Amino acid sequence: MAQFSSSSNDAVAAKNFHIFGKGISFSISPTIHNAGFTHYDLPYKYDIRESSNIDGVAGLILDEHFGGASVTMPHKLQVHKLCTDQTETARLIGAINTLVVKGNGDERRIIGDNTDWSGLHRIMLDYATRIGQRSNVGLVIGAGGASRAALYAMHKAGIQRIYLVNRTLATAEKVREDFKSVFEITVISSLEELVEHPDVIVGTVPAETTTEDQFSAIFGMRGLCIDMSYKPRQTPLLSVAHRHEGWYTVTGVEVLLAQAYDQFHLWTGCEPPKEKMIEAVAQHERENARGGSKGGLL
């Protein structure tokens, strides 16, 4: 077990970390972060706190032992009102998935941040390195908080033409409007409107709301397909991608881990023990293999 090295001689104070969302009893985030805390022998614990609205967790944030939180749907677009401040990136994206505590007492601040985009960005850059060239065309499916992070990650990865498809056109157009001063997004109301095959596809909608038939015509010769929904691990989108030779796929669990690594570092200042976290998730999945569970989305 690694020992946490503090810059202070004082004992490390106990802290509580949470994931805020609705319908998240399935979340594997506690498995990931508690494995990291255990690795460094930190007196921290991470648990699930469900609430139908973000105001329902305000008391937890005000608690002196609050160390930080992950934020998932449907709260990513509303949690900013409980923050003292936001990082520039979180403000630009318009969605927060991470709360970080800075300072103590009267100087205590709650900072809203976003690690969804940084995790996705790293995955996209790793893929570009693997194939030896940059992707040019991106497609994001869905227009919620996770999609905003995916769009920004594509922009930062140098993808030039970015498409956004969503059932409610007005929602997608609002996202396009919010980003228009930074980069352009082409909004389409259905996948049939795509005029070119994307090199990078990111699904951001619950897997149970999709079918394989929806995605039958969107894949070209090769590319990167990411699905942020992680229940089931093999989603309809990824299933279709697997049938196209030349496509590299990334599951929602892999995306969840990628963004969790950045959260862990923000909260602790320590390098995330990636192997321990991956091992904990694998063990968790083995233990739950015989039972069914609801869908999961970052």
Explain what you see:
The chain is of the alpha/beta class and 298 residues long. The protein has helices spanning 29-39, 58-62, 88-93, 116-131, 145-156, 169-179, 236-242, 252-268, 274-287, and strands at 15-21, 44-50, 66-71, 85-86, 98-102, 109-113, 137-141, 161-165, 186-188, 200-203, 223-227, 247-250. A six-stranded mixed β-sheet has the order 2-1-3-5-6-4. It starts with 14 loop residues before the first strand and ends in an 11-residue tail after the last helix. The model is unreliable at 5-9 (pLDDT under 50).
Architecture blueprint of SSEs:
Blueprint lengths: L14 E7 L7 H11 L4 E7 L7 H5 L3 E6 L13 E2 L1 H6 L4 E5 L6 E5 L2 H16 L5 E5 L3 H12 L4 E5 L3 H11 L6 E3 L11 E4 L19 E5 L8 H7 L4 E4 L1 H17 L5 H14 L11
Parallel strand pairs: 1-2, 1-3, 4-6, 7-8, 7-10, 8-9, 10-11, 11-12
Antiparallel strand pairs: 3-5, 5-6
Protein name: Pentafunctional AROM polypeptide
GO molecular function, one term: shikimate 3-dehydrogenase (NADP+) activity
InterPro entries: Aminoacid_DH-like_N_sf (IPR046346), NAD(P)-bd_dom_sf (IPR036291), SDH_C (IPR041121), Shikimate_DH-bd_N (IPR013708), Shikimate_DH_AroM-type (IPR010110), Shikimate_DH_fam (IPR022893), Shikm_DH/Glu-tRNA_Rdtase (IPR006151)
